[in-house]
Write a structure and sequence with these properties.
By secondary structure, the protein is an alpha+beta fold. The chain is 50% helix and 11% strand. The N terminus is likely disordered.
C-alpha cells in the first residue's frame, strides 16, 4: 500500500471514530467566539486568555478531524502550535502538506519510501552541497533563495514515523505562480542555477536516480513488461517506430544539474526566478536535459509541437543567466533533446501503467495512460 493510500485509510478511520468529538469541539469553538465578543471590553488580559483558548480549540478540532498523525509529525520539526494542515497539489513523486502555525507556514512532505528510504544520507549530502554552492556564489538575500530544511527533535533532516513513513519539512517560500509568457525569465533562472551549480563538488554529488535521463534503461524496463493486460497497440507501435531515432540523440554530460527543471519547480518573485525547489534529483548530468525539462513544461503547444518563438526566447534568457555565449549547435541539439525527453517521459508513463503505476502518483484513474498518449503521439512518424 502506498504512503498516500495508508494516510487516507488512517484519516478515514480517525474521522469515523472522532466524529462525535468533532461536533462537540465545533460547538465549544463557537461558544469561545461568543465569549470573546462578550468580554471584548473587559481588558487585554482576558482577550489574551481567550486567544489561548481559541488556539487550543483549533488544535482540538484538527485532532478530532483526522489529522492527529500529521500534527504529531509536524511537531517533530517545530515547537509551535499547528492551526491548519491541508494537502498541497502538484507533486508527482511525494505527498506534501501546507502546515500553518501561529507564527509562520511551512511544508511537511511525505517522501516516496520506495525511492528514497535507502538514500537519506545522499539526499542530505546533496542538499548541503547545493547550500554551500549558493553561499560560495555570493548571492545576496532575496536575489536567490536556497530552501531551508528543518531538523527534527533528534537533529536530523528526516523523520521516520512508527509506520515507517519518511517525512521532512522546510520553510514555505512565498512566490508567484509561474506564467507561461515569462520564458526569458525562466531561461535566465535556469542559466543562473547552472552557474551556481558549477560551485558544487561534482564527485560529492550522489545521484539518487542515476538513470533518470537514461532512455536505454527505460526502454529495457518497457521490454521487460512482456504480454500484460492494458497494452495499447498504438503506443507500442509509436515506441518501436521511434526508439532507434531517439537513442541516437546524444548530449554532453559534464555538469551538475537540477534533474527536474520544469517551470513549476522554479521560485518566481516579481517576475524573476529567485531559486528552485525539489532538489532531490540533483545529479551529475547534461544541461541539455535540464533545458529539455524546462522547455517541455512551458514551450509545447497543445498539438505537441514546440513553440519556436518561446523556445528562442528561453534560450536567449538562458545565455544571459549562465553568463557565457552558447555553442553554435546548442539550439539544434537542444531541440532534438526536447523531442527525446518527451518520448522518454511518455515511455515512462506507459511503463508505469503496464506495471501498476508505481512511480507517478495518479489523481484520477487513467491519468498516466492519457499522459503517455499525449507525449508519445508527438513523436510518431
Amino acid at each position: 500500500m502506498s504512503e498516500s493510500a495508508a494516510l487516507l485509510k488512517k484519516k478515514k478511520k480517525y474521522e469515523l471514530e472522532a466524529y462525535p468529538n468533532m461536533c462537540l469541539s465545533f460547538l465549544v469553538f463557537c461558544f469561545s467566539w461568543l465569549c470573546m465578543l462578550l468580554h471584548w471590553r473587559a481588558g487585554v488580559k482576558k482577550f489574551l486568555v481567550q486567544r489561548v483558548l481559541l488556539k487550543a480549540l483549533l488544535y482540538n478540532i484538527l485532532m478530532s478531524s483526522g489529522y492527529e498523525h500529521l500534527i504529531n509529525t509536524a511537531a517533530q520539526f517545530t515547537g509551535k502550535t499547528v492551526t491548519d494542515i491541508r494537502p498541497l497539489s502538484g507533486g508527482h513523486i511525494n505527498e506534501s502538506f501546507l502546515v500553518t502555525t501561529d507564527a509562520d507556514s511551512y511544508v511537511l512532505q511525505c517522501l516516496n519510501s520506495s525511492l528514497y528510504s535507502e538514500h537519506l544520507t545522499e539526499l542530505e549530502g546533496n542538499y548541503l552541497q547545493y547550500r554551500a554552492a549558493c553561499e560560495r556564489a555570493g548571492v545576496r538575500p532575496g536575489e536567490w533563495i536556497c530552501p531551508e530544511w528543518f531538523k527534527n527533535r533528534s537533529g536530523r533532516f528526516f523523520h521516520t514515523d512508527a509506520d515507517g513513513i519518511i517525512w521532512r519539512s522546510y520553510r514555505l517560500i512565498p512566490g508567484d505562480a509561474p506564467a507561461q509568457d515569462e520564458l526569458y525569465e525562466a531561461g535566465a533562472g535556469l542559466g543562473r542555477l547552472h552557474r551556481i551549480l558549477r560551485g558544487c563538488d561534482t564527485a560529492a554529488i550522489r545521484p539518487i536516480l542515476p538513470d533518470l535521463h537514461n532512455l536505454r534503461a527505460y526502454y529495457d524496463k518497457y521490454l521487460e513488461t512482456g504480454d500484460v493486460p492494458g497494452r495499447e497497440a498504438g503506443l507500442d507501435r509509436a515506441i518501436s517506430d521511434n526508439i532507434d531515432k531517439m537513442l541516437d540523440v546524444s548530449v554532453p554530460t559534464d555538469a551538475v544539474i537540477h534533474g527536474d527543471a520544469k517551470i513549476s519547480n522554479m521560485i518566481m518573485q516579481g517576475g524573476n526566478v529567485v531559486g528552485f525547489i525539489d532538489l532531490d534529483t540533483l545529479m551529475p548530468g547534461s544541461v541539455y536535459d535540464d533545458l529539455a525539462d524546462c522547455i517541455r513544461s512551458c514551450c509545447i503547444r497543445d498539438n505537441g509541437e514546440v513553440d519556436m518563438a518561446g523556445f528562442d526566447m528561453l534560450l536567449n534568457g538562458y545565455e544571459a543567466g549562465v553568463g557565457t555565449k552558447l555553442p553554435s549547435d546548442m539550439r539544434e541539439l537542444a531541440l532534438m533533446n526536447v523531442m527525446k525527453n518527451r518520448f522518454m517521459l511518455g515511455l515512462r508513463y506507459y511503463t508505469d501503467c503496464l506495471t501498476g503505476s508505481r512511480y507517478f502518483i495518479e489523481t484520477r484513474p487513467g491519468q498516466n495512460l492519457q499522459k503517455a498518449k499525449q507525449l508519445l503521439a508527438s513523436n510518431t512518424n
